[in-house]
Amino acid sequence: MGLLDGKIGVVFGVANKRSIAWAIARAWASEGAQLAFTYQGERLKDNVAELVGTFGPETLLMPCDVTRDEDIQAVFAQMQQRYGKLHLLLHSVAYAPREALEGRFLDTSREAFRIALDVSAYSLVALARAAAPLMTEGGSILTLSYYGAEKVVPHYNVMGVAKAALEASVRYLAYDLGPQRVRVNAISAGPVNTLAARGISGFLEMLRHYEAKSPLRRNVSPEELGATGLFLASDGAAAITGQVIYVDCGYQIMGM
Where is the active site (predicted)? Predict the structure, then answer.
């Protein structure tokens, strides 16, 4: 019997096979969860469809631009129609304009700031609000953060501010949704070579730095992030909510 047998989940943010979201989705599915997926825009549709197809042709795949409330409503209307309930939600969505991830944070434009906060932080609030009515049996909402929310990481810039807002949102959502037994947590992952990460200037240097300075002297693997995502979705984490769990080979504890 799998840890997530009988659980229904929806996954936002798979871009390709290297996505952290895909690693967590695979871990969830391996323990019995039945999953639906969304994709952002036609450019990513084929990649995501190919991956999702490995779970079977009946797997639900839906378009969703998280900045459009009507898209979000359409996703959860389809979830309601297909399953009638929901237990798991994975939010792995973040974006800032490329120019905002170069140079100085001081030079972040008002529009780049708005976009980064809307896509990367407010989207969790919007998705949780839409999901909550379906989580009648309790549930687990999981998002992905990064150490740049807590400390300055050169070139992470406005995304660090967005991740700080995301982590605060986790705490407030955990408080609001706790009475209906819905838990909300974040994984703060060490650097992983994903599509999003490659947009950050100096990313390869970051990988080398983590490997040299973390207590475990290595970088985290997608499979390890998947395992943590599985734990947080399972009954083993039934008393854990509002937390940011660092999965970074210990880098977060280091002073220098």
Answer: 146, 156
Checking 202-211 for CB contacts under 8 A at 24+ apart, the result is: 202/154, 202/155, 206/153, 210/248, 210/249, 210/251
**What residues does 61 pair with on adjacent strands?**
37
Residues of the chain with pLDDT below 50 are: none
pTM for this prediction: 0.95
Which CATH number belongs to the domain containing residue 20 in this structure?
A: 3.40.50.720
Whole-number Å distance between alpha carbons of 237 and 225 = 15
CA distance 108 to 129: 29
Does residue 196 have a known ligand-binding role?
A: yes
Residue 52 within a domain: yes
Q: Is residue 255 part of a domain?
A: no
Q: Which residue has the tokens 């070579």?
A: 193
The runs of H, that is alpha helices, within 31-134 are 42-52, 69-82, 110-117, 123-131
Residues labelled as active-site residues:
146, 156
